[in-house]
Amino acid sequence: MAQKSTVPVIRSRKVADGADPLVMLTAYDAPGARMVDEAGADLILVGDSVAMVVLGYEDTLQVTVADIAHHTAAVARTRPSALVVADMPWMSYHVSVEDTLRNAAELVRAGGQAVKLEGGRQRLPMVEALIDAEIPVMGHIGLTPQSVNAMGGFKVQGRDTQAVLKLVAEAKALAHAGCFALVLEGVPDRVAAMVTDSVDIPTIGIGAGPACDGQVLVFHDVLGIERRILPRFVRRYADLHTTAVEALSGFAADVRSGAFPGEHESYHLSDDVADELGLCGAA
Ligand code: KIV
């Protein structure tokens, strides 16, 4: 069994210091967590992307703390070697420090070993309070999906000088506040390189090019389970949607033709009991 990933070990994983890039994948249930862990991921993110790839919503704004706690508990029950990071839903860390702590505690009690939250400077008081309460925090800047309405869509961020300098400043502030790692989403590759060079905690990119200290993708995208959209930054390693539809169609055809269930997929009475009941012939 692989060695258990811990927050201090993840925090020390800078590629510039000779570390291998970190691997993070999302998972939302026990079978998914087992697959991700068996594949050797360093971190499992119980992402609020569950809203879009599992629950059928158009954005991530619909999930609640109870939803993420429910999925985090399913992942944590598998006791993975990977570190379990629970995503804080929209509005669970925006209202007050007290509210943030209470919501994060619910996710930790569900099995999260760290929480992730989106945003920069405006979230610093919440980040500091969580770290004071010894709840490890992963930051998330750049294209922050919970800001979809404020951003006017899921748009690449950090395209002009001012925006780039703001991203670098936010990364430094989050690292200084005590975040143990930082997700960089939807930013140009050279911006991700600048941010990565400017902080001593690992950056984990998604749509941020190869210069980050690690990469994260969504489980359903990697496996080709979710096929509605294919963002440029996704690489599909399987087409499980097609494989699954073929398998399910095979079942439907066998049921309709009477080929399922067969002899070996049925239970049988003993001959003695069948005789006593007056049942004759095969079955
Ligand atoms: O919810 C999620 O899956 C995420 C990743 C895309 C980083 O936040």
Describe this structure in words.
The protein is α/β, with parallel strands linked by helices. It has 2 domains: 232 residues, TIM Barrel (Alpha-Beta Barrel); 34 residues, no CATH class. 39% of the residues lie in helices and 13% in strands. The chain is built from 12 helices and 8 strands. The protein has an 8-stranded parallel β-barrel with strand order 1-2-3-4-5-6-7-8, surrounded by 6 helices. Helix 4 packs parallel to helix 5 and helix 8 runs parallel beside helix 9. It is elongated. The two termini are 47 Å apart. The model has no long low-confidence stretch (mean pLDDT 96). The structure holds 3-methyl-2-oxobutanoic acid (KIV). The site of 3-methyl-2-oxobutanoic acid (KIV) has 11 residues, from strand 6.
Largest sheet: 8 strands, parallel, barrel
Task: Work out the helix count.
Answer: 12
Oligomer: single chain
Average of the residue pLDDT scores: 96
* Amount of beta strand: 5-15%
Could you name the CATH topology of the largest domain?
A: TIM Barrel
Estimated structural class: alpha/beta
- Low-confidence segments, given as residue ranges, are none
Helix percentage: 25-40%
Cofactors and ligands: 3-methyl-2-oxobutanoic acid
Q: How far is the first residue's CA from the last residue's CA?
A: 47 Å
Order of helices and strands: HEHEHHEHEHEHHEHEEHHH
Radius of gyration: 23 Å
User: What is the CATH class of the largest domain?
Assistant: Alpha Beta
Q: What does the overall shape look like?
A: elongated
CATH architecture of the largest domain: Alpha-Beta Barrel
CATH homologous superfamily of the largest domain - what is it?
Phosphoenolpyruvate-binding domains
Spatial order of the strands forming the largest sheet: 1-2-3-4-5-6-7-8
Number of strands: 8
- Estimate nothing, just give the exact number of structural domains: 2
